[in-house]
């Protein structure tokens, strides 16, 4: 006897509740492996995590899941809006896990693991010949994946199908349009900002040692100020790339405090990752056993960390609080390098550079625009992988006015392409755009936010984000979320205005003059 759409939907939610619980446990075990796991337990932990991943893959790929999806979708008009959205997310999860032939799924997994290992091995050599053929294979494979997913998801293009894996609900037309605005505006703004900073006061360099143990104390204070709930999470220092994992009820944040000559990178990574953690902790508790109750894609997730690190924690007001905390924690009450203004100067220097992960706030989006243009051209067949190094260098010269001296500092620096992560890069700049637009709306609702940041009080900003973003889970599309929170669809004007106000001391305008050092305005203090 055929089952009803309602029963099919119930079967699906029960199945995905199991998957979510297993993934939640795996998230904690994975992060614990980076922090508190005994050193001799690694081999067994790897087996455990592999087994859990295999179980969730099998649960998602179960043939009954597709049958239930088909039946539930046929009767979805009788479901409420949240259940319809949840059904859409379950279909997307099925497409991601089971929508590819077995041999292609296996090849994707191999590209991810072997590509990362190969990149680690050859990146520093700068020898393009050692990874070129692998990159060709990765792009060819991902093009095939995109072609299949384009049909299954109804995406406008092959590239958009790949983009949707990381930035769901964001179409490539929007990315192309708004990134085009960044590409047009930012090169001139960057030149002007560099000229302004050269004419303005120069920062006093940090000196001496900032012990890791004291940085750890500062980390705890900053995370607490940012409203991180230590009853449902923890923050650990590791000598590796910072990240956030675990699950919403047990968020595990890691930060790198190994630079004892300069604590600012560790401060930035702590604030950044705590932003991710706050988002996870704020998701709706009553929906956490459903996909619709989880966080949205990488673009929105990245916006939550960027809003805290790059916008809120780089306001002049926040440096007042940070200065006070650093003087106290490091026992440097009279250190002239720790004044609020000097910390701001140190932390907001604009300087075109070769490495994306080291880029300052203003030049960073140009790194993303470059990668977006190149990977899209390769997927579309208008650029050959053979020509990537030259196209990369030409793009760096056009966008930032610099040319990498070698491929290690150029086309070979990122792991994303050899690991098959095509469509990932846009999420970084999209996150910056979302963050600026949300922060502008938060300020409109609560003008007191900057002053409160100066006291170390993130609560007004955190509470606004909890109401307008965290608590929504994935019940809305990106456009719906942005319209509900800001009154507008996602666009780049707030991001450009944020950068112009902070670094050029004036509102952004499409007609803003190009850099002119003779008549440039006074270096801004924001």
Detailed description of the structure:
- The chain has a 3-stranded mixed β-sheet.
- It is built from 20 helices and 3 strands.
- It is 59% helix and 3% strand.
- Helix 12 (316-329) crosses helix 13.
- The protein has helices at 5-34, 42-61, 63-74, 81-98, 102-122, 132-153, 158-163, 172-199, 212-225, 264-281, 298-311, 316-329, 340-347, 364-380, 388-400, 426-445, 449-453, 459-468, 478-486, 493-504, and strands at residues 233-237, 243-247, 250-255.
- The longest helix is centred in the first third of the chain and has 30 residues, at 5-34.
- The N and C termini lie far apart (68 Å).
- Strand 2 (243-247) and strand 3 (250-255) form a beta hairpin.
- With 526 residues, it is mainly alpha-helical.
- The model is unreliable at 512-526 (pLDDT under 50).
- Among the domains are: 1-99; 212-352 and 432-472, no CATH class.
Average pLDDT across residues?
Answer: 94
Give the H and E element order.
HHHHHHHHHEEEHHHHHHHHHHH
Shape: globular
Class from secondary-structure proportions: mainly alpha
The strand line-up of the biggest sheet is 1-3-2
- How many angstroms does the end-to-end distance come to? 68 Å
The number of helical elements comes to 20
Q: Into which percentage range does the β-strand content fall?
A: under 5%
Rounded to the nearest angstrom, the radius of gyration is 23 Å
Low-confidence stretches: 512-526
Largest sheet: 3 strands, mixed
Counted beta strands? 3
- The helical percent reads 55-70%
């Amino acid at each position: 006897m055929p089952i009803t759409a309602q029963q099919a939907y119930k079967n699906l939610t029960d199945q995905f509740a199991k998957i979510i619980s297993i993934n939640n446990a795996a998230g904690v075990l994975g992060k614990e492996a980076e922090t508190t796991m005994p050193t001799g337990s690694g081999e067994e932990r790897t087996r455990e995590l592999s087994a859990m991943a295999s179980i969730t893959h099998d649960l998602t790929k179960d043939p009954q899941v597709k049958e239930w999806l088909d039946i539930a979708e046929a009767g979805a008009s009788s479901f409420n809006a949240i259940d319809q959205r949840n059904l859409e997310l379950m279909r997307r999860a099925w497409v991601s896990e089971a929508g590819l032939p077995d041999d292609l799924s296996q090849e994707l997994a191999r590209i991810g693991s072997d590509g990362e290992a190969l990149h680690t091995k050859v990146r520093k050599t700068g020898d393009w010949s050692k990874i070129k053929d692998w990159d060709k294979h990765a792009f060819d494979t991902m093009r095939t994946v995109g072609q299949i997913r384009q049909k299954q998801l109804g995406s406008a293009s092959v590239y958009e199908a790949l983009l949707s894996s990381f930035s769901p609900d964001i179409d490539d037309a929007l990315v192309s349009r708004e990134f085009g605005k960044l590409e047009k505006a930012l090169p001139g703004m960057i030149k002007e900002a560099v000229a302004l900073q050269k004419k303005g006061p120069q920062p006093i360099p940090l000196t001496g040692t900032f012990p890791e143990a004291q940085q750890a104390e500062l980390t705890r204070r900053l995370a607490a100020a940012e409203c991180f709930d230590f009853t449902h999470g923890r923050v650990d220092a590791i000598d590796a790339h910072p990240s956030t994992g675990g699950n919403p009820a047990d968020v595990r944040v890691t930060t790198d405090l190994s630079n004892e000559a300069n604590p600012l990178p560790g401060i930035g990574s702590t604030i950044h990752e705590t932003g991710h953690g706050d988002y996870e902790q704020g998701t709706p508790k009553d929906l956490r056993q459903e996909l619709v109750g989880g966080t949205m894609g990488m673009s929105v997730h990245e916006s939550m960390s960027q809003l805290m690190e790059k916008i809120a924690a780089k306001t002049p007001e926040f440096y007042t609080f940070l200065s006070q905390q650093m003087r106290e924690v490091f026992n440097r009450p009279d250190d002239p390098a720790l004044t609020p203004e000097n910390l701001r100067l140190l932390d907001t220097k604009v300087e075109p550079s070769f490495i994306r992960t080291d880029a300052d706030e203003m030049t960073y989006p140009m790194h993303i625009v470059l990668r977006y243009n190149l990977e899209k051209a390769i997927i579309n067949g208008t650029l050959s992988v053979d020509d990537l190094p030259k196209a990369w260098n030409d793009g760096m010269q056009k966008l930032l006015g610099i040319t990498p001296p070698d491929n290690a500092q150029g086309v070979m620096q990122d792991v994303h392409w050899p690991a098959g992560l095509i469509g990932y890069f846009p999420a970084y700049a999209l996150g910056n755009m979302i963050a600026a637009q949300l922060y502008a709306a938060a300020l409109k609702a609560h003008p007191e936010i900057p002053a409160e940041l100066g006291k170390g009080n993130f609560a007004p900003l955190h509470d606004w984000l909890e109401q307008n973003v965290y608590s929504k889970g994935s019940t809305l599309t990106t456009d719906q979320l942005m319209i509900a929170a800001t009154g507008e669809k996602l666009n780049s004007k707030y991001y450009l205005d944020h950068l112009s106000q902070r670094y050029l001391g004036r509102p952004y305008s499409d007609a803003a003059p190009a850099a002119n050092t003779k008549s440039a305005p006074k270096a801004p203090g924001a």
